[in-house]
Queue: 3 jobs
Job 1
Amino acid sequence: KEALLEEVEKAVVLAGKIGARAVSLTGLIPSATRHGADLTPSKSPLITTGHATTTACITLNLSKTLTLTHRKLETSTLIAIGLGSIGTSSLKLTIAVLPHPQKIMLIDVKGKKSDMEELSGYLKNTLGFAGSVEVLISTGKSVPNEVYTAENPVIIGA
């Protein structure tokens, strides 16, 4: 990991020397560097992962899709499949800025169960979601059967 951090820091310095004001960490580099937090802070250039833009795009696309298909999130079950950094931030933003669905299903692999339970609490206690939140485990090969029987499903996957 130290070798990776050293190489990324060299790249950031080089980008700054040739005039870059911002450097975006892509691929697996954000995860490997704790979204850049493991890098030695520098004044320039700014380091970003682009996750905020991706998150905003997912929520904007969801809103536009619902409008174009004449559907309402308020009468739907919102199903979030994959709750890594993008999936979690997209769900949080969606609940923060769009009308709340009737129900939310959180789906990820068994190793993410405690994260999903924590997210459930955040949705209810911080974002004021009053509906039910169901934490479901995926086998990695398929989603739980509850996805196929959900009432008015709206699925976001990241």
Note: The mean pLDDT is 94.
Job 2
Amino acid sequence: MGLFCLSKKNNSDVKMVLMNVLANALRNIVNAEKRGKRQVIIRPASKVIVKFLETMMKHGYIGEFEIIDDRRAGKIVVELTGRVNKCGVISPRFDIALNEIEKWVGTLLPSRLFGYIVLTTSLGIMDHEEARKRKTGGKVLGYFY
């Protein structure tokens, strides 16, 4: 599962291309939590990362975060609280119907009452409990606990 891909423009010019920015961001968060850091810088920023972080912040797994526009791809500075044990991306983004959410919760999370699966739906990016309340399915983005 490579996160980087080599792109060749000329014969001598080799450039690294980031393949999955969400996976890279979540891996940075987990590594910083394991090292006991108080904050972590995520780059590049994207709308999907921001919505995923908003879901984590809503449930108290991370503190506040700040988006810094550096006129390139942007950076996000995230305050860590020490609550994240594991978070990750599910690739490919499988379709989940409303009646399949419970099966995915049992597969991805250590307990039914512990952690959240993040889905992208037609109503926006949300956790599995909110999707169940709104009676909608979607594609699975990732999880955190």
Note: The chain has a mean pLDDT of 93.
Job 3
Amino acid sequence: EVVQSSLEHDRQQLEQRVKNQEEQQRDLDALREKLERDKSELEETKQKQQHEAEQLNKRKAVEQHDTSERVAQLEQQTKEVEAQRLAFEQRRHEQAASDAKQRKELDTVQSRLEHDRQQLEQRVKHQDEQQVELDALREKLERDKSEW
């Protein structure tokens, strides 16, 4: 009976150990499944992040290209505007020189015209004086004729 009791006790202990091992095996299997799911999720997240990083890099490259093009356009426009400004300044300078030359020529012409006008006035005055003398001589001639 002691042996039987001892065997029964050993059997119960063995059953308990088997039960515990089965529970540990289920826990271990559940942990393995969870680890596989976590690994799969981690891989998905990694691929998603890699895809997002690639998209971001593509957008950055496009933006950099667009920015470079815009900078080149602005530099070209700046050169064109500067060339136009220089051409305008050159034309303005040439126009100012032309205006000064024309003013000088106009002053010269006006001076000549004034001189000519004064000379003409002198001639007219002189002719008027001669006409008065001539009229006086005609009158005298007419009187002298009538006296003869």
Note: The chain is about 100% helix and 0% strand.
